[in-house]
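can u pls check wat happens w/ magnesium ion
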Amino acid sequence: MSPPVVQPPVRDRLRIAIQKNGRLSEPARALLSSCGLSWRESPDRLFCYGETAPVDLLLVRDDDIPGLITSGVCDLGIVGRNVLLEEVSLADLEGQPYNAKELRALGFGGCRLAIAVPQAWTWTGIEDLRGRRIATSYPGILQRWLDDAGIDATTVQLSGSVEIAPRLGQADVVCDLVSSGATLAANQLTPVMDLMTSEAVLVGTTQPLDPARAALLDMLLRRLDGVLKIRDSKLLMFRAARTALPELMSLLPDAESPTVLGVIEDDDAVSLQTLCHGVVTWQRLEALQRAGARGLMVLPVERMLA
Ligand SMILES: Nc1ncnc2c1ncn2[C@@H]1O[C@H](COP(=O)(O)OP(=O)(O)OP(=O)(O)O)[C@@H](O)[C@H]1O
Ligand SMILES: O=P(O)(O)OC[C@H]1O[C@H](OP(=O)(O)OP(=O)(O)O)[C@H](O)[C@@H]1O
Ligand SMILES: [Mg+2]
């Protein structure tokens, strides 16, 4: 007799997969903490039980995150867009649909996936890749990009240290992640074309969630939107002559709905407060001061709910 099929119990807690060790681990945790989540560490440090909300964390290799979501083991994940797009591309090349998608871009882990060629080459354009061997850890993204461009080339799949492949004679060029460009330069390579720009993204399933988890996801997205919106925002306050307002406003193109208040016993003066979404540098403050602003104050914004 075959063993009975055991259905997994219905989960009423949300489960988020993040990278265990690596570039995205700390910023991902910090972002979720700033959404009011906290966890109890388990002895194995692989599963963290949500304390302030029924939202648990799973700590894994980043490559495993998309699969954990498509298989329904986790509801959400934080991973580089490059990793998600690779899985989407591989499914697409096989004519399969993919049931996970990017829900939010998170503004950290920025890098790009680029083609880089030996510095000795004179690069004339994408046609130069025809018939070449390209080393990469992203065969799916690369293949789709080559197909779109109608270029026939050979992919040499490597899981790391891709930049060394041309020097070892394994490949002619590389297709790898670039941030500062230091690794390429150290290997005498020059970036010539970008396939994509990447940053950490929140990934979720395209399948409907049960009502309990759907409500938790809604709550998390609302908090996340509030955090992302104000992350680089500051509350700016100053006083000025009423007549100086037009010039001052022209210096604040990123100011959101400024509030202008009257000043007691000075009809010609106003007090202004506004949310600035760009970075408020000393140079900006000095420009405002030259235009007549006085008593300038820049205040951090801790939370915002639309
Ligand atoms: N040099 C870089 N600068 C900025 N972001 C990067 C850089 N390299 C990679 N990233 C981004 O950070 C993500 C994680 O990079 P990391 O090197 O930690 O991954 P990994 O070695 O594959 O980790 P894991 O052990 O979890 O598999 C990448 O998928 C990419 O989105
Ligand atoms: O442009 P740069 O700032 O030099 O960064 C790019 C390098 O960073 C990543 O490698 P990582 O350091 O994670 O090593 P690995 O991929 O071999 O694990 C990426 O794979 C590149 O090799
Ligand atoms: Mg990885």
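The radius of gyration is 25 Å.
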